[in-house]
Amino acid sequence: MRNLSLLTLVVLFFAACQSNSTQYKVSGTVAGLDSGIVYLVKTENGRPVTTDTTDLVNGEFSFEGSIAVPELYYLRLNAQDYFGRFFLENDKIEVTANIDSLQNTEITGSPSNDVFNKYLDEVQVMNEKMQEYQQQYAAARASGNEDEVKRIEFDAKATNDNMAVFAKNFVRENNTSVVAPFILLTQLSQQLQYVDLKELYDLFPAELSESLYMKELTKIIETKGRTAVGVQAPEFTMNDVDGTPVSLSSFKGKYLLIDFWASWCGPCRRENPNVVEAYQKYKDKGFDILGVSLDRDKSAWLKGIEEDQLTWTHVSDLKYWQNEVAQLYGVSAIPHSVLLDKDGKIIAKNLRGEDLHKKLEELLN
């Protein structure tokens, strides 16, 4: 069972609103360790960046300073022992840690962290439940009990759906807290459609607008707005397997599936037989496919096309995740597909399996 849980909180750095204080003081203790170096760390572009260090003396440490816009920070002991994820803001923050259980570090003292911890408590319960499902699923698969496999998949999906509902309600109920846009960005922004995402985004007050993660949300919303159901699909031109430019507008007059995939993508390759079946069934009734590959190796791309018998038009700039069309369409995971009507307007997204056949049957028969 792939991706049972979507609940693990993505590690990103983001800004938050300012508190009334103009200084922060982070005071902490590490039971079981008398000396060492403690690092104050944030994440930039997916990499940890140390912003300050201090000595651990008799098991105690402290950081003092000022931060213009609060952000998500971490503490680190010595070379690689990370602990204590928290929002650093201009307030007094207390850290209680134990060298034998750094994962259980407690952090109190800032309003943002009170809200953050309330959210994480619920996430932890859900994560534990999902871990149980994963263990049960592995056992059911090993024993060949397909009925049990289906039951676990159903229960896991229900739990995952419940978590998404909880996250959305949490954002609504805590919309004035810096934690709300953080959750919307890290947990919901990729899975929500444009209208639902924009509705939650519009709940945030103006004082949050300068935070970095609000700016990131703005970019995502702008991208999703360009590719929302009902709008004209953004035009693009990209070279096919022979180096010949192919424009999206050249497919007008047909229902077109823009299929984002890659030869290295296992889920894409597993879905390809279904796409091939749909193409063979409807290609003579006004349906076509334009494959956009996120490959970076041309030989692997061509081999994948041949092996899966993908006989429609294919384009790629071989830029991997930086594929320009994928960037234009806000593609963050593959397989990803966009279905256009004869005039080039988007009418559906991410139709897979039987859903793709049902939609094409509805449109073409």
UniProtKB/TrEMBL annotation:
CDD domains (UniProt xref): TlpA_like_family
GO molecular function: oxidoreductase activity
Signal sequence extent: 1-21
SUPFAM superfamilies associated with the record: Thioredoxin-like
Chief localisation class: other
GO CC list: cell envelope
InterPro entries: DUF4369 (IPR025380), Redoxin (IPR013740), Thioredoxin-like_sf (IPR036249), Thioredoxin_CS (IPR017937), Thioredoxin_domain (IPR013766), Thioredoxin_ResA/DsbE_sf (IPR050553)
Source organism, top-level taxon: Bacteria
One BP term from GO: cytochrome complex assembly
Keyword Disulfide bond: yes
Entry's localization field: Cell envelope
Keywords: Coiled coil, Cytochrome c-type biogenesis, Disulfide bond, Redox-active center, Signal
Name listed for the protein in its UniProt record: Peroxiredoxin
Provenance organism: Sunxiuqinia elliptica
